[in-house]
Design a protein that fits this description.
The complex is a heterotrimer of chains A (392), B (85) and C (478). With 392 residues, chain A is of the alpha+beta class. Chain A has 12 helices and 12 strands. Helices cover 28% and strands 17% of the residues of chain A. Chain C starts with 19 loop residues before the first helix and ends with a helix. In chain C, a hairpin with a 4-residue loop joins strand 12 and strand 13. The chains are: A alpha+beta (392), B alpha+beta (85), C alpha+beta (478). At the B-C interface, helix 2, helix 3 and strand 2 of B face strand 2, helix 7 and helix 14 of C.
């Protein structure tokens, strides 16, 4: 590798030696030998215990996979430790899953079990596990998430922190396979959803409740107003001249949906707000086509406060939903399938989560969510309506 | 002038006028089509990409979308080798 | 390297393969430069007592991890690093500040990139530069991950050295779209990082902005019996074919490919990609009747053992498989399982539940669904089933040609910041079918339209729309 400030790059001849359009490193060179030998020949698989899978090839060969969690935001020190383990146990091969788990693939069951034991024994000095194994079968896999306060300019909450807090609370579900179906949790720290959480069993969504503040003092000087105006997807921003004669913009607060595109273009329109920002909770989505079609997650709690460092309001609700579902659902029922079968009114009753006016959709195509049937179940919500009209 | 030069000139004309110093490819394409009605997206892109490599134009990525602009007009790119950092 | 002839650059099974030692920046002594005791007693520059509360609890703590990188950098010293040795200290400091205040301290504000590319790098600055000068810049570099995220440790260690020497030493493995992400670099290090990646590691950066985004895929045929096509190879080939679209922006907005090997959809293509390739088959589910008997007898655990953590009672094929089949196309007579394959919609349930008895069909290909996206702006969309079945044969000409058709159309027709799902919604699925040159099929919709507001073309109505009012009046006086 190059060293020094500029390395191989010469700013006087920026095109010299420039290599472009080479794409990703070819995957073929990264595959463990047992995978190469049986590529396309796999016949079946089993989960031997949480965090340990075996895949059986038509050739009779077996690949043993040990799966461990990673927090996604990881240091090179952490990656090097993963490499040390992979060198010791897996001839220098390792892979990662879509949900940020680490997978070590071996061709021997005893060796895989020894590796698993070693992984489960490794802890950070602060006390947490470094590589807890699990995340298989009918349990919780890793929580996928976005950047939050570690790196993002439009978050309404942190990402790594609430995820750590939630995963701590649900750790046993990562280590076990005792749920009615898979549990997939995801967090996006604002509604742009750079981590698309909209089809998760449980989605935690950072949510702003205030439009951007406008810094009239600097806006006209440091930002290009036509670009700021064009940045708004809802055409809520208009150029104005302030009473002091400064070039600036106005924001139509009724239209704003807090996407932060304007702040991306212009630092004069910050979005973050201690009181305004928090987390919405959505449940019942999935991406698999198994039994029922893929589903969107539904908003069940429009907003909970950011209560650092461990977001107890959020983790309590998540844990509670998982517990109620685990107890009540049939085998194979994802959260959305379960709620669909018992009825969402029953979901709110069983979980005790309040159904408020904000749970009634008022955005585009809201009418699609209205119930147009006399098929419903009686809950206290229904009696309250009947009483309100003097019907009871 | 050849076809590519015509397109190049049309891009410069579009990029140096107008209120916005940065613009989407689509707007630039529409701008070029005003002088060269049959200009296709791929040939305009080819010329624009060459202009970016020659540092006549530069690209602004907001992360979610990307805009073109004439180098030196409006906010500009920070580059390796520049002072600061 | 992705480039032709370099496919085995890092291949450990090849004699002359490249090794970490060939490109390493740090010595072994530099890599193992602190003890557990030092880490135990280590304090970062700022008070971070609030986020240190995230070190306890069982889940791997990102705070503990960043602290050890901070210590490692201190011990490496500024002479061995191209960006501030204290960058992790300042990062933890600013995160602590956000935890106290409940607000982010990052802003976008800058334009950064490498020459000639429109994507792959996202600029980031903080708004507390006086207090945290070492994170004045904290740019992101997206690096195109190999298919299914398989690595050799030689390659990964090389990546780590770049990310530490010219970055903060912090990464995302992996970003939401699939890239390897180097976090926290400074503007002056972007070109050197790009040169190191392309010259020494043989890898390119990924996509951002109005480009093709870095494609990603499931593990596919590498280790999954459900995979109906070679997701890893198709992902690689499509990424290579459309490099220009990935690096040089001409799209109205972002565009994502994702490749799932079967309808279980582990890569979430149906929810997260503008063009989702999902494996499927068109012949019969393969049945091993003896193995079915073993499942029924409880000799093989259902779902490969996925339910093993709870006592769900004895497996009952009638209630758990036959009755849950969404099309009710299966029968069990006590001895033999039969499937009316013509009625099967390939939901995967029976195969997922009894993988040792049932297998996906042998006549395999893929379906293509267009238009999935997250909610901004018109609401979330899932992919719309548009192409029911395509064979997947290298060099994938039919897949590539279809994509070219889609891109050519969308570049011209899409509005700025409009995902293709929204374009299709705006111009109608009917128009999109015409663009692709495909007939409409009932599989494209959940049910037929209920509103009768059908627009007819003038050419479809005999006589056209120009009517002779005088002739009309001869029949209908005023």
């Amino acid at each position: 590798m190059s060293k020094g400030k500029l390395g191989y790059y010469d700013p006087k001849k920026p095109q010299a030696g420039r290599i472009t359009d080479i794409g990703p490193s070819h995957y073929g060179q990264m595959l463990p030998p047992v995978i190469r030998r049986n590529y396309g020949k796999w016949a079946s698989h089993r989960i031997l215990e949480p965090g340990l899978l075996v895949h059986v090839s038509e050739t009779g060969e077996k690949a043993f996979t040990v799966r461990a969690a990673a927090p996604r935001l990881i240091s090179v020190e952490h990656i090097r430790e993963i490499c040390d383990i992979a060198d010791k146990h897996c001839n220098g091969y390792v892979r990662f899953t879509t949900r940020n788990n680490i997978e070590f693939i071996l061709d021997d069951e005893a060796k895989a079990k020894a590796l698993k034991k070693e992984l489960d024994g490794k802890k950070h000095i602060g006390g947490s596990f470094k590589f807890p194994t699990g995340g298989t079968g009918m349990g919780m896999s890793n929580i996928v998430h976005t950047q939050g306060w570690v790196h993002c300019h439009t978050p309404a909450t942190d990402a790594s922190g609430p995820v750590k807090a939630t995963a701590d609370v649900l750790f046993d579900e990562f280590k076990n396979m005792r749920l009615p179906a898979k549990l997939r949790i995801a967090l996006a720290c604002c509604l742009n959803m750079c981590g698309a959480v909209h089809c998760s069993d449980i989605a935690l969504l950072g949510y702003h409740r205030k439009p951007p503040a406008i810094d009239h003092e600097v806006l006209g000087k440091v930002c290009e107003i036509p670009l700021v105006v064009a940045a708004c997807p809802l055409y809520a921003i208009k150029p104005i001249t302030t009473e002091e004669g400064k070039k600036s913009v106005s924001v139509n607060n009724e239209k704003c949906m807090y996407c932060g595109n304007c702040y991306t273009m212009c630092l004069g329109l910050p979005l973050a707000d201690r009181e305004g920002d928090g987390i919405a909770i959505l449940v019942g989505g999935k991406i698999s086509n198994r039994i029922s079609m893929p589903k969107f997650s539904k908003v069940i709690i429009p907003w909970l406060p950011n209560n650092m460092p461990r977001w107890p309001e959020v983790t309590n609700v998540v844990k509670h939903i998982v517990e109620v579902w685990a107890k009540d659902a049939n085998k194979y029922e994802r959260i959305g399938d379960w709620a669909g079968r018992i009825g969402w009114e029953r979901f709110f009753e069983k979980t005790g989560i309040p159904f408020t006016e904000k749970s009634l959709d008022d955005y585009r195509l809201a009418v699609d969510t209205y119930r147009t049937s006399t098929q419903f179940k009686y809950t206290d919500h229904a009696w309250a309506v009947s009483k309100a009209v003097g019907g009871i | 002038m050849g076809r590519d030069e015509d397109i190049r000139q049309a891009i410069i004309d579009y990029a140096s006028k107008g209120a916005k110093s940065k613009f989407y490819f689509k707007d630039m394409l529409t701008g070029v089509k005003k002088t060269i009605p049959d200009a296709g997206a791929s040939e305009v892109k080819k010329v624009a990409s060459a202009m970016v490599s020659e540092e006549v134009m530069e690209l602004l990525s907001t992360g979610s979308s990307t805009m073109y602009g004439l180098k030196g007009r409006g906010i500009s790119v920070e580059k390796s080798g520049d002072a600061g950092g | 390297m992705g480039a032709p002839g370099q496919e085995k650059l890092w291949d450990k099974e090849e004699k002359e393969h490249k090794k970490y030692d060939d490109i390493r920046i740090f010595t072994d002594e530099q890599l193992k430069n602190y003890t557990d005791d030092e880490l135990k007693n280590f304090k970062v520059k700022h008070d971070i007592s609030m986020i240190e509360q995230l070190e306890s609890g069982p889940w791997p703590s990102f705070v503990s991890d960043i602290k050890r990188e901070a210590l490692h950098r201190h011990k490496l010293g500024q002479d061995n690093l191209m960006i501030p040795a204290d960058i992790c200290d300042d990062l933890l400091g600013i995160v602590e500040l956000s935890y106290k205040e409940g607000e982010t301290h990052w802003k976008h504000g800058g334009i950064v990139g490498v020459l000639g590319y429109g994507g792959g790098i996202v600029g980031r600055y903080n708004d507390q530069q006086a207090q945290f000068p070492n994170i004045a810049h904290f740019h992101t570099i997206r690096v195109n991950q190999p298919s299914a995220k398989f690595y050799t440790t030689d390659w990964l260690r090389g990546f780590c050295d770049i990310a530490e020497y010219r970055g903060s030493g912090l990464t995302n493995l992996h970003g939401s779209t699939g890239d390897l992400v180097i976090l926290g670099s400074f503007s002056d290090q972007l070109e050197p990082i790009f040169f190191d990646l392309t010259h020494d590691l043989g890898v390119d950066i990924g996509g951002s902005g109005g480009n093709l985004r870095t494609p990603s895929d499931c593990i596919g045929k590498a280790r999954c019996e459900f995979a109906c096509y070679d997701t890893m190879d198709l992902c690689y080939e499509m990424t290579m074919e459309f490099q220009d679209e990935l690096h040089r922006p001409a799209f109205p907005y972002k565009f994502k490919f994702k490749f799932d090997g079967c309808p279980n959809g582990c890569t979430a293509s149906i929810a997260r990609s503008d063009m989702a390739y999902i494996g499927t088959w068109k012949d019969d589910i393969r049945i091993n009747q003896d193995a079915v008997q073993e499942y029924v007898a409880g000799k093989i655990p259902v779902d490969g053992g996925a339910f093993a953590g709870r006592d769900w009672g004895k497996f009952d094929i009638q209630s758990e498989i036959i009755d849950l089949c969404p099309t009710k196309c299966m029968k069990w007579d006590g001895k033999k399982l039969s499937i009316n394959n013509a009625e099967c919609n390939r939901c995967m349930h029976c195969i997922d539940a009894m993988p040792e008895a049932l297998r996906v069909g042998k006549d395999q290909g893929l379906s293509i669904l267009f238009g999935a996206k997250a909610p901004i702006l018109e609401g979330a969309q899932m992919g719309c089933l548009t192409i029911p079945f395509m064979y997947v044969n290298k060099p994938y000409d039919s897949q590539k040609n279809l994509v070219r058709k889609v891109f050519d159309w969308w570049i011209e027709e899409g509005k700025n910041r409009e995902r293709i799902g929204e374009t299709i919604q705006r111009v109608s699925l009917k128009t999109f079918c015409e663009v692709l040159g495909i007939p409409p099929m009932p599989q494209m919709v959940k049910e037929p339209r209920s509103n009768p507001y059908v627009f007819f073309k003038e050419s479809e109505v005999p006589g056209g729309w120009d009517r002779d009012i005088n002739a009309y009046r001869t029949r209908h006086p005023r």
